[in-house]
Each structure stands twice: as C-alpha cells, then as structure tokens.
Write a structure and sequence with these properties.
443 residues, alpha/beta, 8-stranded mixed β-sheet, 40% helix
Length: 443
C-alpha cells in the first residue's frame, strides 16, 4: 500500500481533479489524502475573521459566494445532472454547518469547524467523481474518525493506528481509499487541525499507522530544489535527501514540505517521495535513510527571526547560568531556533516575538540585552561530517561580502546555519547559489 497526498493546487479545479484521478489509477492498494481546493482555506479564514469582528452580513455573503463556486465545480466535474444534484445537496449540508455558526459569536472551536470544511468538500467531490464518473470502487474514509490529538495537542499515534486499521478492515476488497488531510479531533473529541500545511503531516501519520511501502507528496513543483526558486534563478530539484536533511530544510523554510511530516516516516523507515502533479513524469525528490556524498545539497531561508544577545561577565565559569537563561524562554513558551555562545555572551534567535518584552525584562537580570529584529536564518544542508569536505570554507568564500550576525556549525552533521539581516537575504541566497551550486548546475 502507498499513501498519496495531493495539495490544494493539485485539486484546485475540476480539471485538476480529473488529472489526479488519472495519476492514482493503479491496481495497488492506496490511500489518497486531499487538501482543500486552492483558495478555500484562505476564504474560510477570512469568513472566520469577519465573524470574530461581528460582521455577520459580510461573512454570510462570503459563504454564499464560496457555496456558488462549489456548485459550479460540481456541475463541471460531474456531467450527469442527477449525480451533480446529489453532490450539491451534500455540499450544501457542509455550507449549512458554516451558516449555522453565523448565528452566535464565534468561538475557537467554531472557527476550527469552519476551517475543516475545505477538506470535507474536496474529498466529497473527488470521491463522487471517482465512483460515479470513473466507475472505480473507492471508500471515503472520514479522517475525523481516526485522526486524533492527545492531551498535549500532539498526534496520538496509537489511537490513529488502531482506528485507521479498523476503518480499512471494513473494506477488505477495496484498493482505493480517499480521506482528508489537515483535519482531526482533539483529546476532547472536538474538531481540530494540524495547522496550515498539515495535510503533509496527515499523510505521513497515516502512512506510519498503516505501515505503507511509500508516502508520496504531490505538489506543483518537481521536488525539493537546491535553493529558493522564487528568489534565485537556475535552481534544480534534488534527487535524494536523507530524512534528517529533509527535516532541516522543511523546518528552515523549504515550503514544499511541512516541517513535521518527515518525523513519522523516519521513525518507521518509510520513504517519502515529492512529486509534481503538473509534471508527473519528473522523478522528483526521494527522502529516505540514505544520504549522498555531496557536502552541501541545498539552502533554505527562514524569515521573521528576532536575535537576542545577552552579555554578562557572570557567565564565566558560572555553573547553571545557561540553564537559568533558557528557563526564561521556557516560562514564556517561546522556542529557540539558533544558539551561539562565548565566554561572556549568549546569542540566540526566536521566531515568536509575542512575549519579547517580558523575556527581555527577565533577561536583563543576567546582564545587558541587545535585540535585533527582521533577521533571517540561512540553513545549508548536506553531508557535513566535519573536516571531510572543507564545506565551511566554501560557504564563507561565497559570503565574504555579506555581514553575518551569527554562525552555527557542528550541532548537526547535516546543517550549517547563518543569521543575516533580512535585507541581505536575497543577495545571500544568490551568492551561495553562485559559489556552491553553479558548477553542479552546469554539470
């Protein structure tokens, strides 16, 4: 069995859904995980924001516009009037749920119900097309029946495995299953989600739970590129990455992959393949336990960082100093991305500045505090076993004209991290591309 996940652009229209139906045509057993149609989640977020603001009339108008859009997609996708009418009737039940939430002040749980409708709508339409138009046998598995979070809002792997296995067992002769990404229930049984981009995570969790042969993530780009193609010209897809390399790139800004999605696959040794629905013949990127010999394979950038430097003579040989300093961030539930230390100073970065004033106030007990906002982490990933390739020297030669705020090397055999001012991000990525990858691209 394989898991095949298709993102919003892959199912963003009736034509795209028909193309996906062609891609999944196979005799092998498979679970197809769908995101919401492109643009739907953004519309649902806007509707929720209008309801929070008390603008019920405007929210209702947006709901009706979205409902009519789905009616049009249903009629285009399902040419038989009776089939289209039946699908529209079910679609309208979902929109009735959304309209029902306009009659009272919106709560957090109500917002999550609204956001869940996108995946429910896309899978409903796709399942109707597969069964009524294509004539294939397929089971529609409600993700809300087996995807669950635990009390810490982390996926409950044991629950997912038990209940997904039970769902699959109800269809012993079925080889195609369609379900929703992103959505789940929390420990209280309420509708919840795995946050934006969480359909990748859903696919990986389902793949691990079902013990599949391979997890495929289908998007609109042919694999994970060596640099950001939105910023740098001449990038190219990487053919193979290790789980650790892919996890680093995803966390530090590679948008094609959800940061958590590699973890369940790595734990169970299940390869993950990144493929392009617009160019299905392209080999894409294979993520597995193997790693190549390249010192540096790819670069990613993470924006929105704040750098904090704490300087204190009390650090010198002081037992427990770092623990006390890090406990400040723990108390304010703020994670740290990058750390460098010297004998008298600690520099670190955070990506959530919500509690920055309180954190700075506490840190001032330790010494002087400097804060630099609008920072970007540049993450370089590859087989960086120290001293085997001279990789660091290649990096610094490429960046000799760019000021570096922080450097982290040695914490991982797969990562060199650099902190630069966000204003220098584009020229940093271009300089690295020219210095590290130009010869590879030509070859």
């Amino acid at each position: 069995m394989k898991v095949l996940k298709f993102g919003g652009t892959s199912v963003g229209s009736a034509a795209r859904m028909r193309a996906v139906a062609e891609l999944i045509r196979s005799n092998e057993p498979r679970i197809v995980v769908l995101s919401a149609m492109s643009g739907t989640t953004n519309s649902l977020v806007d509707i929720a924001q209008l309801l929070y603001a008390g603008e019920v009339t405007a929210a209702s108008a947006r709901i009706e516009i979205l409902r009519q859009q789905y009616h049009m997609v249903a009629r285009e996708l399902l040419p038989e009037p009776e089939v289209a009418a039946e699908a529209i009737k079910v679609l309208d039940e979902n929109f009735k749920t959304i309209f029902g939430l306009t009659r009272q002040p919106l709560s957090g749980s109500g917002e999550r119900v609204i956001l869940a409708q996108g995946e429910l709508l896309s899978t409903l339409l796709f399942h109707r097309y597969i069964t009524a138009v294509e004539g294939q046998e397929a089971a529609l598995l409600p993700a809300l029946d087996f995807m669950r979070l635990d009390a810490d809002d982390e996926p409950d792997a044991a629950y997912i495995r038990e209940h997904l296995t039970a769902q699959l067992a109800q269809y012993p002769n079925t080889r195609l299953f369609i379900t929703q990404g992103y959505i789940c229930r929390n420990a209280q049984g309420q509708i919840d989600n795995l946050k934006r981009g969480g359909s990748d995570y859903s696919a990986s969790l389902m793949g691990a739970a079902a013990g599949v042969e391979e997890i495929q993530i289908w998007t609109d780009i042919d694999g994970l590129h060596n640099n950001d193609p939105r910023v740098v010209e001449g990038t190219y897809p990487i053919r193979e990455l290790s789980f650790d390399e892919a996890a680093e790139l995803a966390y530090f800004g590679a948008k094609i992959l959800h940061p958590s999605s590699v973890l369940p696959a790595r734990e169970h040794g299940i390869p993950v393949r990144l493929l392009n629905t617009m160019q299905p013949e392209a080999p894409g990127t294979l993520i597995s336990a193997r790693t190549g010999q390249e010192a540096i394979k790819a670069v990613a950038a993470k924006d929105g960082l704040t750098a904090i430097k704490v300087k204190s003579s009390r650090m010198l040989l002081a037992h427990g100093f770092l623990r006390s300093l890090f406990e400040v961030f723990e108390r304010h539930r703020t994670s740290i991305d990058m750390v460098t230390t010297s004998e008298v100073a600690v520099s670190l970065t955070i990506d959530d500045a919500t509690h920055l004033p309180e954190i700075v106030a506490e840190l001032q007990r330790f010494g002087s505090v400097e804060v630099d906002e609008n920072q970007t982490i540049i993450c370089l990933v590859g087989n960086l076993i120290q001293n085997s390739h001279g990789a660091a020297s290649q990096v610094f030669e490429s960046l000799q004209n760019i000021p570096l705020r922080m450097i982290s090397y040695g914490g991982s055999p797969n990562n060199i991290s650099l902190l630069v001012n966000t204003a220098d991000k584009t020229r940093t990525l271009k300089a690295l591309n020219a210095g590290l990858f130009a010869r590879t691209a030509v070859a």
